[in-house]
Sequence to fold (286 residues):
Amino acid sequence: MEQIIRIAVQKSGRLSDDSLSLIKECGIKFYNGTGKLKSTSTNFPIEFLFLRDDDIPGYVADGVADLGIVGENELVEKDKEVVTLKKLGFSKCRLSLAIPKGQEYTGVSYFEGKNIATSYPKILGDYLKKVNISAAIHEISGSVEIAPSIGLAEGICDIVSSGSTLMMNGLKEVEEIFKSEAVLIANKDLVDWKKAIVDKLLFRMNAVQKGKSNKYVLLNAPNESLEKIISLIPGMRSPTILPLAQPGWSSVHSVLQEDQFWENIEELRAAGAEGILVVPIEKMII
Fold:
């Protein structure tokens, strides 16, 4: 019997798109046509299960799937016994409290004795306990934003990305209580051969993510400025220095985190760097 692992992925939505994009960037080929609930890779020992996001922690905990990609909000809310292997850096959002726009907000004590509608009763309950607020939690599975306008609750607790949905429903965000992003989770009892496949998958994911957060930088510089420029773009080990046809000038090649490059760009120019090129890196093996 062929040895393969199973990974549970959300079947639709932004998290699904981002998850499958990462997997494809890892060089893993598979077919995920409309409505397809299972798919097996043609070049990597992995089978995909396309599920509802709130079912994924349970499937992984029960061993139906070996791995899962899920939002931290669903992972914490379901409170299943799984192992978090890696934060994936995409599908970032926050869980926040919101109230009608016309209400004056005086701090978290506003919610004392009030009703709050949410799809995340555990996360909300843990937060209210931490801040010592007693409020009634009303669990509803969807359309949380409508709760204040129909008299079900004075406030809501829901996932916020841009805040536009709150605005359209006459609400304003008042307290952020939880930050979330996609995470890779695993069953806690994986056998050794499954762990070996998971390690190979993690290696590929790390290479893709390293590439995204770093850039290949090329620039020309006068030789008398090389020492200063090297100190600004040290690279993974050290920059590559190549002489130009023009005497007294060199080409400097290095790898930098994108944020670090933007912090140093003015100093590089002041040191005499010219013709600066910043090139994306597809994958980065360290």
Observations:
- The mean pLDDT is 92.
